[in-house]
Amino acid sequence: MVPGLYERLIDADLAEALAASDLRVVSGRVDTADVPHVLTTHLAARIESALNDARGKERLELANRLLAILDASALHESREDNSEKMPSQGSPDQLLSLWPAHFDRAPGRPEIPLADVALLTNGPQDPGLAAELIKEMASADRVDLLGSFIKWTGVRTLLPGLEALARRGVPIRVLTTTYIGATDRKALDKLVDIGAQVRVNYFSASTKLHAKAWIFHRDSGYSTAYIGSSNLSRSAMTDGVEWNVRVSQVATPHVMSKFAANFDSYWSSPDFEPYDPPNDAERLEAALAGARGLSGPSVTTSTVTALAVRPYPHQQLMLDDLEAEREGGRHANLLVAATGTGKTVVAALDYVRLIDRLNDAGRRVLPRLLFVAHRKEILRQALRTYRDVLHDGSFGELFVDGQRPTDGDHVFASVQSLRDVEVFEPDRFDVVVIDEFHHAHAASYRKVLSYLHPKELLGLTATPERGDGVSVADAFFGGRIASELRLWDALDADLLVPFHYFGIADGTDLRRLTFRRGNYDQAQLSALYLADQSRAAKIVENTHKYVSDVGHMKALGFCVTVEHARFMAAFFTASGIPALALDGSSSREERAAGLATLRSGEVNAIFAVDLFNEGLDIPDIDTIIMARPTQSATIFLQQLGRGLRRTPTKAVLTVLDFVGHQHADFRFDVKLRALTGLGRRKLRKAVEAGFPFLPAGCYIELDRVTQKEVLDNLAQTVKLNATQLIHDINVHAGDTRPYTLRSYLHDADRPLADIYAGSTMVTVRGRKIPRAWQALASLAFDGGETIGEASVVELDLLRRIRAFTHVNDRPRIAAYRSILRELAIAETAAEAKEALASLGDQAAYAPMLYFSLWPTGEPAQMATKLWEAARSRIFRSELEQVLEVREEVLRTVARPLSGRFAAVPILSHGRYTREELLAGFGVGTMDDEKPGNVREGVKYVRHLEVDILLVTLRKSEADYSPTTLYRDYAISPTLFHWESQSTTGENSPTGQRYIHHESRGNGVVLFVREAKTGEMGTEPYTCLGTARYVGHRGSKPMAIEWELGRPMPAHMLGSAKLVS
C-alpha cells in the first residue's frame, strides 16, 4: 500500500496487510448512522469486480446467489472456519490514512468525506470552496486545474495551498484560455513561478472551453474533483453565487474517469500551448487585449510567423483524402469546402507533402508552383500562407496588377495576368492550384487549364456548381470530388454557425404526383402549392412561432418555380413580413437591389428558385425556409449552407422545413444522413429518440406528424427486403445489360450495405438464395436461371461475400485478384498449390482470403479450397464486382508496418475482420489455433513475438454508456489510452511483457473499431499500426498509454477522441 488518505473498511485481509506494513496507520470508527452507506459502497465495489471477472450466465448466477443470501437473511449462518471477514457486532473500523513513520502528523482532511459527493453553493451551511480546495491540496499526489480564465485574486486566495504543493514537489497542471480577455497574466506568471505547468488556448474567438474544474489525484485511489461554475477568481472562491459539485473516485468513478481522460486529451492537444513567461508574455498580453476588443501592445512580427502551421482535424481529413487520390493514380483533384474553412492552408500543407513525392530520393527541391486566383487580396493572403507553412519569407512572387515574377518558379498570379500564359512552357509548373474553381468554365480559366500540363492540379471551391447547375467536378474531374468537407465535421470544428432544424407537417398530399429519379414533376408541384393558401398561411404562422424576431429576420426561402417564389413573396408581404422574389431571370441590377434591401432590413425574406446563383451568398442570412421538398443531399446541403456562414451577430441558423405526405419513392434518409452524419442503421433510432447526439449547439425537432411520416418512410426505404431490392434493380436497370453492382449502387444512390446487410440467406418466390448481387440480379433479369445453376458450394461462397465489403487498401485488392486469377488457371489441386507458391509476396495474403471464407478451416486444405472457389465463375464475378466498388471509394493511404513486421501482409490504416488480421499474422497456419475460434480482445502470437490488441471503443450497444466509454480512447493522434483485461496485473507475466516489450524484443500492434456491430453486421477493425509503451496506471486492469508509430487516420481520430 502507498501513503495517502483512505476511506476503506478494515476487513481481515486489510488488517493483515496493515500489520505487516511499516507505515503509520490512522484508523477510526465509522459512525453508526453511516454504517449502511459505507458498507454498501464497500460491497458494491467488490460485487462489481466479481461480476466483471465472471462471464455470460455466471454473472446472473452470482447475482442470484447474492439475492438468495439477502432474501434468506443468511448472514446469521455460521461459517465452517468460524472466521469473519468483518465483525458481526458494533461498527467496523475504517482506515483513514497511511503515512511514513517520520511524518509528525497526517495532513488535514477535507470537510467532505473522500468517498462522498456534495453540491457546494457558497451557502452558510457549506464549507468554503477555497478552504476545501486548500485542504484537498494537502493530501494530493497530483493536481489538475481547468479554467476558462484565471484571475490573480483567485490565485492569491489559494496561494498557501499551492505553495505547499510546490514544496512537496507535487505536479500541477493548468489549462486556461484567453476567452473574453479575463485571465490575468500575473496569475499565470505566479503559477509558473511556483512550479506549475501552464498551457493556454490563444484562439479566443473560436474556443469552446468554458469549463471550470479541479481534480486532485491520490495514489491511494481516493481521488476527488470539483466541477462547476467557479473560475479561479476571488468572488468564485468565497462569496459569489456559484454551484460546484464535488465528486469522488469511490462514489462516481466513471465521472472521474471521464474528467481525467478529457483533461489528458486537452493537455495533449496542440490547441493548448505551453506558457513560458519570458518567451510568451508579450503574446499572451496581445491575445488578452484582442479578446477584450482592445489594441494590445505592439508585437514585433517578422515576414514569416515563428509558429508552426498545423492542420485542424477537418483539414487533416482533406489532406488524407488528397494523398489517397494520388495513391490511386489521380493527379487532378477537386477540394470542396465552405468559405472560411482554410482551403488555402490545406493547399499549402499539401504542397509540403508534394515536395517529397515529386523529388527524387535524397533531394529536396521545391516543386515549381502556380497559384491562380481572380483577386489581388486573395493572392497576397495565399502567398503569406505558403510562406508561413514553408517557414520561408522569400518564397513566391506575385504576378498581378503589373507586378511580374523574375524567377517564375513559384508564382501567385491573377487569371487576368495569365492572358499571355504562353510566356510559360506548358510543363513549366509541377503544381497548379486554382482558387474558386467554380469559375473554371470562363474562357480565361479554360485557356490556362488547356495550355498548362502540371504533374498535379488542385482545384479549390466552396460551390462546385455554376449558375446553370453544371458541376465543375463533372466537366474537369470526371465527376469525382477528391475531398468534400462534411457538414458535421465543419460544425464540430466550430467553423459554421450551429443550426436549429424544425420539420413541420404542412398537410399537403404529394403521393399522387409524378416522381422520377428523386424529383417531383415541377409543374404539378408548383400548381399544387399555388392553389393552397392554407399552406402558405401555415408557413407564415410557423415563421412567427420559431423565429425570435421576425422584424429583424433575414430569411432565404427555396421554392419550386418562379411563380411559386412570387406567390410566397406576395403572401409574406401581405401578412406583414416584407419579402421579394429573385430568380435566374432577374437582371443583375434587380438582384443587387433586392439583396441590398435584405441586408438593410427593408425586406425580411427573399424567395428564390435558382439555388446556384452566387449573388445569393449573404452571410447575414439567419433563417432558411424550405418551401419545397428536396431529396438530393447535395441540393439540401447547398440550401443549408447559404445560412451557415458565421457572423459576429448570428448565434444560430433557424431552418424551417415544411413536409407533406410524400410519394412512396421519396427518401427522407438521404437528406437526414447529410444533415446528421449518421449511418442508415442509426438513423431510425435517432428519429425516435429526438436526435440526442448532434454537434454542439445544433438541434433537430420533428413535429408529431412529421416524425411519423419520416419513420414510416424510413421503414419502407432504408432497408429493402430482397423482393423490394429485386424490383428496384429492375427499375433502375431498364434495358441496360449487363448491369453491374457498381452501376446499380450509383443509379439508386445506395450503399453496399443495402445488398449484403441482414440475413445471409433470404427466401424469394419460395426459393432460398444468398443475399448477394448475382442472386438478386439473376431473379431480376433471367427469372433466377443463373442462380439456379449454382452449386451448393457456390451458394455458400456467395453467403461469405460480405466478409470482403470492408477491404480498403490496393495491395490487398490486387493480391486477392491475383490469387483467384492464378488459381483459376490451374488444372489440378497440385497445380493450384504450386501457383500459390509462385505468387511471391502476394502469397502471404492467401491465408487471409482463405480464413475469410472458411474461418475455422483446416490449413492443409487451403490451396484446394481456394482453387475450388477460384474455379467458380459466379463467385469470382461477385467478388470482383465488390472489390471494384470498394476500389472506387478508397480514401485510405495504407502503409506496411514498421520494423520486423514490414513483411506481414497487414497495413496500418487498413480495415480487417478478426479472422483476416489474425490470419495475416500467421494464426491458423503457424500455430494450431483457427482464426475463427479466437474470441478474446488480446492475442499473443508467439512465433512472431507480438501482442495483437483488438479494441472496441463503444463496448455497449447503447449510444451512451458512461461506465464503458472511458476505458479505451485516443488522447492525441499518436497517443492511445488502453485498458487491459481485468485479470492483468502490472506484475503478471503479461503485464510485464507489455511494460518491457521493447527491451525484450516483443511487438505490439493495435487494432480499433468504433462498435461491435454496424450496418453490415460485425464491424471490422482499423489497424493503427505498431505501438510503444509509454506508461501505465493501476493494476487489474492496467490503464496503459501507447505511442503509435504512425498518427492514426483523421476519420478514426474523430471517433476515438473524447474532445472535439
From TrEMBL:
<dbReference type="InterPro" id="IPR052511">
    <property type="entry name" value="ATP-dep_Helicase"/>
</dbReference>
<dbReference type="Pfam" id="PF04851">
    <property type="entry name" value="ResIII"/>
</dbReference>
<dbReference type="InterPro" id="IPR021835">
    <property type="entry name" value="DUF3427"/>
</dbReference>
<dbReference type="InterPro" id="IPR014001">
    <property type="entry name" value="Helicase_ATP-bd"/>
</dbReference>
<feature type="domain" description="PLD phosphodiesterase">
    <location>
        <begin position="205"/>
        <end position="236"/>
    </location>
</feature>
<dbReference type="GO" id="GO:0016887">
    <property type="term" value="F:ATP hydrolysis activity"/>
</dbReference>
<dbReference type="InterPro" id="IPR001650">
    <property type="entry name" value="Helicase_C-like"/>
</dbReference>
<dbReference type="GO" id="GO:0006793">
    <property type="term" value="P:phosphorus metabolic process"/>
</dbReference>
<dbReference type="GO" id="GO:0005524">
    <property type="term" value="F:ATP binding"/>
</dbReference>
<dbReference type="Pfam" id="PF00271">
    <property type="entry name" value="Helicase_C"/>
</dbReference>
<dbReference type="GO" id="GO:0003677">
    <property type="term" value="F:DNA binding"/>
</dbReference>
<dbReference type="InterPro" id="IPR027417">
    <property type="entry name" value="P-loop_NTPase"/>
</dbReference>
<protein>
    <submittedName>
        <fullName>DUF3427 domain-containing protein</fullName>
    </submittedName>
</protein>
<dbReference type="InterPro" id="IPR001736">
    <property type="entry name" value="PLipase_D/transphosphatidylase"/>
</dbReference>
<dbReference type="InterPro" id="IPR006935">
    <property type="entry name" value="Helicase/UvrB_N"/>
</dbReference>
<feature type="domain" description="Helicase ATP-binding">
    <location>
        <begin position="324"/>
        <end position="468"/>
    </location>
</feature>
<feature type="domain" description="Helicase C-terminal">
    <location>
        <begin position="542"/>
        <end position="699"/>
    </location>
</feature>
<dbReference type="Pfam" id="PF11907">
    <property type="entry name" value="DUF3427"/>
</dbReference>
<dbReference type="Pfam" id="PF13091">
    <property type="entry name" value="PLDc_2"/>
</dbReference>
<dbReference type="InterPro" id="IPR025202">
    <property type="entry name" value="PLD-like_dom"/>
</dbReference>
